[in-house]
Each structure stands twice: as C-alpha cells, then as structure tokens.
Amino acid sequence: MIPLSLVEIASVVGGEVVPADAAVTVTGPVVIDGREAGPGSLFVAFVGERSDGHEHAAQAAAQGAVAVLGSRPTELPTVVVADPQRALQQLAAYVVGSLRGEGGLTVVGLTGSQGKTSTKDLLGAVLGTTAPTVATRGSYNNELGMPLTALRSEPGTRYLVLEIGARGKGHIAELAALVPPDVALVLNVGHAHIGEFGSREAIAAAKGELVESLAEGGVAVLNADDHRVAAMASLTTGEVVTFGRDQPADVRIEQLELDRLGRPSFVLLTPQGSAPVQLQLVGAHQALNAAAAAAVAWSLGLAPAEIAAALSEVSTLSQWRMELRELAGDVTLLNDSYNANPDSMRAALDALASLEGSRRIAVLGEMKELGPGSDAQHHAIGEYAAARADHVLVVGEAAAALHRGAPGSVLVADNAAAVDWLRETLREGDVVLVKASRGARLDEVADALE
To answer: What does pTM read for this prediction?
Structure first.
C-alpha cells in the first residue's frame, strides 16, 4: 500500500472523513479481517448477514489499524461511504494507476477453468526472482480478493500478478476494468462452474473478457492446445503469445517425462532458445501450467535459462494443491483437496497413477456447480478413477453417482467414516489421493491421516 492520508482516500472513493479533523495516514496493509491488521492498516468494514464488521474496529485497532473504511463511523477515524466494496475497488484502481505512472508497475491478469492458482504461484515465483512481485494469495480472486491483492503493491513493486475468477458473464470484465492488465493469460476453458454458465461456450466468452480488457499495447498469452482459448486471439489487436505441448506454439513443452514421484521434467522451447526444466511439483498437468507461466515471463523479457531455473526451484504451491506428504508406515499422501471439477479430477487421477506404490487409493468427493449434467459427470469420473486406482473411496451421498461409475468402489457417509475406512485399510507403500470440491472439506480427511 502506498501511504495515503484519510483526506486523500476520501477524495478517491467519494467518502467523508469522520471526525473531519482526523489527521491520519494509512501506511500498512488494507484488510477486511480485523485479526489480520498490522501497524498503519486500513480496516474495511462490511455489514453481512451474520456479522457487522464495524463492531470489530476495536479488534483491528488492537492489531495496529489506524482507520476504517466503512458505511458508518466507528471508534477509529473512518472514511464513510455508501458502498464499502465499491470504495475498496476504487482505492485499488487508484493505487495501481499511481504505481503504473510513477514506478513502471506491470500488471498480469490470469484466468482459466483450472490451474489458475498453481500457474499464478509458478509465475509469481519466476517473476519474483528478478524484481519485487506481488501475487494473489491462495485463490483470493473475487471482487474483494482482487482489490485487496492490488492494494498490497508498494512503490518498489515491479510486477502485480492477479488471479481473476468468474461465476458469471461480466464478472471478469468488471474486475479487469479496475486494473486493466498489461498481460492477459488464459489457461483453458473447462467444466468448472458450468452449472452457473450453462455451456462451455458461455465460459469461453467470460474468460475472453480478460483479453478484451487488455491495456493499450498489452499482450495476450493463450493456450494453443485449447481451441476455445486459441480463438481468443481475435479479441485483441495487440500481440499474442501462445504456449502448449500438442500444437505449434511460441513457448512449447518437449520431451516430457515423469519421475517415480510423478514430477515432470521437460525441455522448454522458446523463440530465443531452449532450457531444461525439472519441476518439484506432482502431475504431468503441472508442465503445461509451467509453460503458461514461462510464456508470460518470456513476453516480459526474461531469458529461457532464468525462467527454467526459477521454475525448477518451486517446491510448494498454495495450500491443499497437489501437496505430497510422506506419512507413517511408508504411506504417501497426495492432498489436492482445495477444489475439483471434471478436468482437474482427471489430472489428479493421472498424477496418482504416475506415482510408484504398492496400491493407489483415490479418496474422492463431490464436484460442485456442475448443473443438470452433474450425475453424468460424476459417473464418468468414477469410471476414470476405477481405471487408475486400485481402490476408490467415495465420500458423501452427493457423490453417489461417482460411486456408481466406479465398479468395486466404497461409498461412505462422511469424512469421519472415510478416515475410519482408511485407517483400517491402509498398508505399507500405499499412495493416497484426496480430492473434491472445497465444500466437501476433504482436507479434514487429509489432516487426519497426517
């Protein structure tokens, strides 16, 4: 956050400072949870169905917050506005605009049906080796998370990497309009949230909004292997850089291999030369995520050798995404429980199949937001899982169609029953995948095993 007085903030967001003579300057992070405030913080207060953030101003103050942005006065100096969410977004747009003009900040926006967070983590790590970089934490990619990420930018920040999600038409356009990207990366068009969009064509149109929002002179980085994404080249008159494995592309993966832990190695090809990459991440799909990150980095002027070296150094991603753990009894756990859709389920099951072990056990739960085709999609994943795992454990009645699609699978009622089954069944050398949509909370199963 750049230092701003309350008077300056009020001017940006169209608010009123209460009390009017409050001479306060915000120098610390902008937060929406009082527990996360620090010295010099601005606490943004919202009124929700179950709680009123204004009532937590004192908690924020105890952590170091010096002011509040809210819809009514609090015990701290407050910038009062009609709509705190809109004010937060306006403030983010102002800060990024200021840093672009003064410090040469470059904004990268990325979206896709799956792989966003892993690719964002990889890209943030690569760019961070060359200059100060701010990237989205976890999957903080919505109407609150994106501006909060943008507001972490400081005068010295060179790159801002924003993961942008969508649950409907116009969502990406609205967020990208606040902070138009200099580079727009679109990974893929899959089945995630298809229940809300209605079709993959509608999903493609929504993802394409990011390309349409490019700042003047911007670059679109597109997946050549996904024809819906490749077609987005027509949405911009700017430069287009492509990445892929199966189709001709500017940045390509060649000679892809997996080691005994399912970690990909490959040769990264670019117009400026090639370099070997040895990822420490699990799953062949991570190679394409790495290629996407590499394509962005290459478009920003990084050399193939430094990109490859940085990718090879990344050892962890955001929480509960393809986390590989060695457990007692020589059991290996692959925790990918943060979220799931049919495409990411297949990728995770392929990763499980690539791991060496005495038996491969897939612990799977519901994939949410699939709409009318949900049962068919779950059934198909059940068939896919049965072909790649020695045992399939399905958790929850909501995933019963997955159980029906996997001959010989076991269906249990809840997470506690899943843990009990695993504790009775696991033996030395087993490899266990845990995956479902976030709402299924299968991270509890993984935690219990650890």
So the answer is: 0.87
